[in-house]
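Lecture 7 notes: from sequence to structure.

We start with a single chain of 265 residues. Read the sequence below before looking at the structure.
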Amino acid sequence: MIFDKFSQANVEGWEASTNDVNAGTGNFGACCNEMDVWEANSVSSAFTPHPCTQTGLVRCSGDECGGTGTPDNRYGSICDPDGCDFNSYRMGDTSFYGKGMTVDTSSPFTVVTQFITDDGTASGTLSEIRRLYVQNGVVIQNSNTSIAGMDSFNSITPAFCDAQKTAFGDSNDFDAKGGFGGMSAAAANGMVLVMSIWDDHAANMLWLDSAYPTDADPSQPGVSRGTCDPTSGVPSDVENQSASSYVTYSNIKFGDIGSTYSATS
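Now the structure, written as tokens:
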């Protein structure tokens, strides 16, 4: 039996996680471009591209893996750990997404993500990522940003990413690791759709739905991302108190812009 570098198990140097019986780290990691089409719960949601300087799966080891596993070297990998996220709550519209809000998370809805190119063709370079929703037969356009010092945006573009990083005082690793060009190359190379329901043993999902970082002032732009308490999201609590939680993904479609949904769907 012959194994290549992409068939190796991460066993050597394995150390079990201190707070997750199902996880741990070994000598190696894997880096690849990531497009978070939909990270959400009933309180908050975000869609986020994470580019890398290389296309395809790349093995890393030690500090070069960067990310949450090496907080002192978060930006050390070839990939951007932060991404350029659009979270309506974080971007200033606190009444757009949630139970009883414009997008009402107490009932089913359709999430639409559109990838726009610079020349309007399927082979052009990615230049914009749009989000809209369909609920009860009504198409709902994405919320607009409302952040001091930023123009109004309702989609992810290079201009949005630059303005957001500046307004929030965040490191612009998105541009440093390839930006839209890197994501465009990754999409052209092919990406795998993965769906899951999960809890977060690294940051308790606070980056999605609470004030994060936890030691930052929630009144500062970009810190508040949702209404959850900063003490929430502890995996042991989630698994004990919400063991029956579930999510249903259905009617998944892929096609030309505007072809996968209608106002009556």
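The first strand starts at residue 15 and ends at 16. Keep this in mind for problem set 3.
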